[in-house]
């Protein structure tokens, strides 16, 4: 029954009702308090129309596009790309017609949605355990990418985007976002103050975006007008979806809100939708950083002056009001708080934050932050999970070639070993010794080296940098990108005498 047509209809109704329930529970309050109003920042420059593309630009975008095929595509994407030259002129006409008239093709507005179990250990009979995964027609993504390129140039030239917003932007990754936050928190720690870090949680934020509010924001805040604005109106409206599982499908249903899931433009449109939030937070003097729909607030607190905590609480209240007005639901019960500093001083702040979930370790964009900023819980978690995979690789190692085993090592071990490792810069070698032990074990499994043999020559023969040098190498790469490629625009606080403390 799970893959029957009835099940498809049930999933379609479930996904729709989930979004409708969130929006119906929100009661926008139009507060007359001037302190809560967002000052309108009118754009100095406007984008009235898109530039028509030539065959060279279209071919470049086409060749770089992923080969993901949608159920609605007439032919497989890989085949389409192979014989692209035969359709080049027709595709170019479709693309330029869309850009010139401000109309997005209706055939590209229908999404194929597949339910995906959030975790393998969840009950597959409970619909709340599924997330919707959307797939869109390939040609529509090509048009989106060409529009995105022109938007990206316009945004960079006129500094449209929020400087403290990362995600879906060049040189604004999760790692650079966390490095900025970590630098601020460590500077506060070095100045003998406490930091309060608050992680906000939203419910289905991308799916509840109000189209009219977004279009108004594109016009009044971003500077889109004329054909360009009409194109986005056409792009957002009259969209539909259906649920597909195996050979069964539901009926087609209308989408009345949200940015298109699985699209090229959806994430950047959400960033634009969230632009006024930065003004709301700055009014309170609270530091913040956002990555997509993950927003985190942090503020420095002196043990003898807890007034900044009240400021932070008022900021959260205003954020909740602003989000309600913009059809975004802030989950009060899932807000996480981390107090960073000496344990005896942390106890002084806890009573003021009793309405929030406070712990000594929180997961922040995939990294475990702890109250001492020593990353011991994060390192312990990485070592535990990677040794599990290494054990499985060791079982099948006798049946694999050296090259195949090395591919597995990079996929299951080093992908996590190097993940966010720039955050570990400056930690004592003792703190990262277990990570080095993990790498040594991986090298022994790969080369079948015995435990009594020295590992240094093995690492050298594999051209594997030791963990401490991998961390330094990542930092050097990021520093090298600053003058040559460009750095994130989020301005850090003035650094203390050392950015990272050698001893925590």
Tag the structure with descriptive keywords.
five-stranded mixed sheet; disordered C terminus; alpha+beta; 504 residues; 17 helices; six-stranded mixed sheet; Alpha-Beta Plaits
Description:
The chain starts with a helix and ends in a 20-residue tail after the last helix. It is 46% helix and 13% strand. A hairpin with a 2-residue loop joins β9 (287-291) and β10. A 6-stranded mixed β-sheet has the order 3-9-10-4-12-13, with helices on both faces. Strands 1, 2, 6, 7 and 8 form a 5-stranded mixed β-sheet that branches. It has a two-stranded antiparallel ribbon with strand order 5-11. The chain is globular. α2 (55-64) crosses α4 and α13 packs antiparallel against α14. It has helices spanning 5-25, 55-64, 77-82, 84-101, 138-158, 174-190, 211-222, 226-236, 266-273, 275-282, 307-325, 343-346, 376-396, 402-417, 433-447, 456-462, 467-484, and strands spanning 110-117, 130-135, 165-166, 194-199, 202-203, 239-245, 248-249, 253-255, 287-291, 294-301, 329-330, 336-340, 357-358, 361-364, 367-370. Mean pLDDT is 89; it is low at 491-504. The protein folds into 3 domains: 5-163 and 207-268, no CATH class; 177-204 and 276-370, Alpha-Beta Plaits (2-Layer Sandwich), CATH 3.30.70; 376-481, no CATH class. The chain has 504 residues and is of the alpha+beta class.
């Amino acid at each position: 029954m799970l893959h029957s047509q009835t099940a498809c209809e049930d999933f379609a109704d479930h996904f729709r009702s989930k979004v409708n329930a969130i929006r119906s529970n929100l009661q926008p309050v139009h507060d007359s308090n001037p302190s809560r109003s967002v000052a309108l920042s009118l754009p100095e420059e406007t984008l009235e129309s898109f530039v028509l593309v030539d065959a060279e630009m279209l071919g470049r975008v086409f060749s770089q596009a992923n080969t993901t095929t949608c159920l609605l595509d007439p032919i497989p994407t890989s085949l389409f790309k192979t014989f692209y030259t035969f359709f080049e002129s027709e595709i170019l006409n479709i693309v330029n017609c869309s850009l010139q008239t401000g109309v997005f093709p209706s055939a590209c507005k229908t999404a194929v949605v597949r339910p995906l179990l959030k975790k393998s250990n969840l009950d597959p009979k409970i619909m709340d355990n599924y997330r919707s995964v959307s797939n869109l027609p390939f040609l529509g993504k090509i048009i989106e990418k060409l529009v995105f390129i022109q938007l990206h140039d316009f945004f960079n030239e006129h500094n449209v985007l929020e400087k403290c917003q990362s995600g879906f932007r060049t040189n604004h990754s999760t790692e650079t976002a966390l490095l900025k936050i970590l630098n601020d928190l460590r500077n506060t720690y070095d100045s003998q103050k406490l930091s309060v870090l608050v992680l906000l949680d939203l419910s289905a934020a991308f799916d509840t975006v109000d189209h009219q509010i977004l279009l108004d924001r594109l016009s009044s805040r971003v500077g889109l007008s004329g054909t360009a604005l009409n194109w986005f109106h056409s792009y957002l409206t009259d969209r539909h979806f259906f649920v597909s599982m195996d050979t069964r499908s539901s009926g087609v249903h209308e989408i009345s809100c949200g940015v298109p899931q699985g699209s090229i433009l959806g994430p950047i449109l959400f960033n634009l939708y969230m632009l006024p939030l930065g003004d709301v937070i700055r009014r309170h003097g609270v530091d913040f950083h956002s990555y997509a729909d993950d927003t985190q607030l942090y503020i420095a607190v002196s043990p003898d002056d807890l007034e900044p905590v009240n400021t932070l609480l008022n900021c959260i209240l205003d954020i909740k009001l602003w989000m309600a007005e913009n059809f975004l639901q802030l989950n009060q019960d899932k807000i996480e708080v981390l107090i960073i500093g000496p344990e005896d001083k942390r106890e002084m702040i806890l009573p003021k934050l009793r309405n929030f979930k406070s712990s000594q370790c929180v997961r922040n964009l995939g990294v475990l932050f702890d109250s001492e900023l020593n990353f011991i819980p994060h390192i312990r978690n990485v070592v535990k999970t990677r040794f599990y995979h290494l054990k499985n690789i060791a079982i099948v190692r006798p049946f694999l070639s050296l090259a195949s085993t090395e591919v597995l090592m990079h996929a299951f071990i080093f992908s996590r070993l190097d993940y966010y490792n720039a955050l570990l810069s400056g930690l004592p070698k003792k703190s990262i010794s277990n990570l080095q032990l993990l790498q040594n074990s991986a090298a022994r499994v790969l080369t079948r080296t015995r435990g009594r043999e020295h590992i240094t020559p093995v690492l050298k023969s594999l051209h594997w940098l030791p963990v401490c040098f991998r961390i330094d190498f990542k930092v050097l790469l990021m520093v090298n990108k600053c003058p040559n490629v460009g750095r994130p625009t989020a301005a850090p606080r003035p650094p203390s005498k050392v950015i990272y403390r050698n001893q925590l």
